[in-house]
Amino acid sequence: MAGADRIAQQELAWLEERGLLRSLEALGTPPGAAVEVLGPRGPERLISFSSNDYLGLAAHPEIRTALAEGALRWGAGSGASRLVSGDFPPHRELERELADFEGAEGCVLFNSGYAANCGIVPALVGSADAVFSDALNHASLVDACRLSRAKVHVYPHADAGALRESLRAARAAGARRLLVASDSVFSMDGDLAPLCEIAAICDELDAILVVDEAHATGVLGPHGAGLSAELGVAGRVDLRMGTLSKAAGVVGAYVLGSRALCDLLINRARPFIYSTALPPAVACAALAAVRLLRGAEGDSRRGLLASLTRRFAAGLRELGLPAAERSPIFPIVLGSPERALQVAAALRARGLLVKAIRPPTVPQGSSRLRFALSAGHTPEQIDAAIAALRAVL
Question: 166, 234, 240, 382: least surrounded by Cβ within 10 Å?
């Protein structure tokens, strides 16, 4: 035990020396555009640009009520995995709603996007196969590819041509199955995958296509059905993973696909088989959230978010910073971890909570601030963020 503690202390010191040490900070308020952070010097009231609550639904009264009423009806937990005795009507109702929402034959709930991705890929491919992963994919897809024991090929970010050549080479080398995995919206850069080109390549070369729609769910596409739906390629994506923990404001994830693929996941996806199911009360809250996403309020919030996104992008361009407008995620790349921490602290002194993102979350030399906008922000808060950046950069 003493040896393990010594190793931990050495590793922590190594991280601190390189500006990579992380720590937890508790919030004293519900999630939102303005939060209270509980620190050693007392609470700080800050404008938060570090949440993935893109539509500002995490504290929505209808969702909170659905969660509370669900707990009163179904209890606090589910008691077991769904294959044992943890399968409840709210789980099934939510799956039906999600499948209908996104025009899919089947849907399977998972406890998180990370768990879903780590279940999808190993359920479909193994040691005789090859998987192809975008260089900037989320860590969950990176780990899913490793867990599959398939031969992993990492292709240059969003480079459809390089992907095609890599797939052809693997096919010629005798790979049994080919699987391509990509984010739709890349979580640390905010840019979009070339899904039309990727889908065409997968059709051409008979490759399985898995798309992680976590940062597009609720934000892009008709009523927030995701980038695949927006581009008209949803029917050509074999499995789409969506999240309930970002724009939907709750927790959990889901996978959409054919009925056969969903049945296979129920039988082969280890995070589904061996995890206690989401509490049915959470499924009740998620159902309320999905219905909000699909309705007029969801459309209104997406419109507001798009307006704020354009406003922030214009402000960044006035500062001479690159800024696209296709997602509410804006990276400000600063290079070293120390520089990212310095600027984050300077913004915090001006009332903004913007966390520094450092390796291994992003590649070496690309430490950054990641601004994530929400429909809960006001135009004045967006302008305050631009003014603060002007002062500190």
Answer: 166
Q: Which token pair is 31?
A: 């999630």
Angle at which helices 280-294 and 89-102 cross, to 10°: 20
- Max intra-chain CA distance, the chain: 62
Looking up tokens 């976590």, which residue turns up? 214
Q: What burial class does residue 42 get, using C-beta atoms within 10 Å of its C-beta: 0-12 exposed, 13-18 middle, 19+ buried?
A: exposed
Catalytic residue among 215, 245, 366, 367: 215
- In the annotation, is 187 catalytic? yes
Q: Rounded CA gap, 187 and 340, in Å?
A: 18
Digit-coded pLDDT (tens) for 90-119: 999 999 999 999 999 999 999 999 999 999
Q: Of residues 187, 245, 327, 374, which has the active-site annotation?
A: 187
Bond prior to 122 in cis (omega within 30° of 0): no
Do 252 and 109 form a contact (C-beta atoms < 8 A)?
Answer: yes
Cα 264 to chain centroid, rounded: 24
pLDDT at 1: 59
3-state secondary structure of 137: coil
Q: What is the pLDDT of residue 284?
A: 98
Helices 139-147 & 113-124, crossing angle to 10 degrees?
A: 30
Q: What is the pLDDT of residue 39?
A: 83
Amino acid identity, position 221:
G
Are the C-beta atoms of 142 and 133 separated by less than 8 Å? yes
Question: Phi first, then psi: what are they for 180, rounded to 5°?
Answer: -105, 130
**Do residues 221 and 193 touch, judged by C-beta distance below 8 A?**
no
Residue ranges in the chain whose pLDDT is less than 50: none
pLDDT of residue 104: 97
Contacts of 180 (CB under 8 A, 6+ apart): 131, 132, 163, 167, 198, 201, 202, 207, 208, 209, 210
Of 246, 275, 327, 377, which residue is the catalytic one?
A: 246
Rounded Cα distance, 381 and 34, in Å: 9
Instruction: State pTM to two decimals.
Output: 0.95
How long is the chain? 393
Which pLDDT does position 83 carry in this prediction?
98
